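Quarterly update from the structural biology core.
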Amino acid sequence: MRKLLLAAALFAAPSFAHASDPALEPLAFLAGHCWKGTLPGTSDTDEHCYSWIFDGKYLRDRHVVRRGDKAVYEGESVYFWSGESKRIEYFYFTAAGGHATGHMIPEADALSFPAAKLVMPTRSVGFRSKLKRVGDDGYEVFREYETDKGWMPVTVQMRKVAK
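Predicted structure, tokenized:
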């Protein structure tokens, strides 16, 4: 009987209920939600789903770019507080074998992600971005990618969607 009660309690507890690490508060509004936007000049969509992991010590962002019903790009970020550097840092990795590390700086009205390098099997690409909250149900991402001609901007409006 005890095993049955324990199992029922575990399954009844919502997985999204974990409180975040206080140091991750600037990212907390993202947690427990999926956000979707359309990439400029295309019909491709970019969907990010955020969830707390390990009792709120980390924030996971799983994202998928879709062209119609087909996933054409997938990646995952894990954000965490670094006690050593005293800032929020992240690991990012892609289904195509790419990876990056970087950090986030909270600003008055945005979250700033300074320049980092996405290292892929055949080449590397510099990127940086700012995320600005727009009401309770959206945020704007201003991304830039490093090219031979300089930094190329891409802005995406993200909206909260059902999981």
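Residues 2-12 form the longest helix (11 residues).
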